[in-house]
Amino acid sequence: MMVKNELREKFKVKRSELTVSQRKAMDQRICENLFKSTAFQNASAVFCFVGTDEEINTYPIFEKAWALKKRTAAPVMTGKGLMEFRELTDFNALKQNKFKIFEPVEGKVMIPDENSVIIVPGLAFGENMTRIGYGGGYYDRYFFEKPDALTVGICYDFQIVPYLQREEHDIILKLIISEK
Known about the structure:
By secondary structure, the protein is an alpha/beta fold. The protein is about 30% helix and about 25% strand.
């Protein structure tokens, strides 16, 4: 079985091989599938990462949430392996951090509740509702004390594998959505 770092590298390479037009079409279908989900439809607040050029474009997720009058929040790194979510009401409030990830520089801290959906990134996702992120443990630490949070992984279908070994600190997703 491949170890996490080997899987990370494998899926980074596969993702980088997508053409711009493939990525755009797949991103659109992922967003459409998310919007059809009861998790998104029933949420009053949407917590979502701001996708980098290599990740799924999440801007339409924020735009759809705003159009539906849902509150939105994006993660901000606050220390090594630590993050919080801050309210995001406008893309102009985003600034790049040292890792070239866009974060809201202003906005009050938001904490997910039972009416929130949390959309998480990853490099690989298991059908057993596990994920492999980028190795910093930010999401695992954040959700360790929030095991009932409605966490949704969004990814390209090729990032889904039958099984990923779960470690004690790894979060369990409630739903995985791809373009399929």
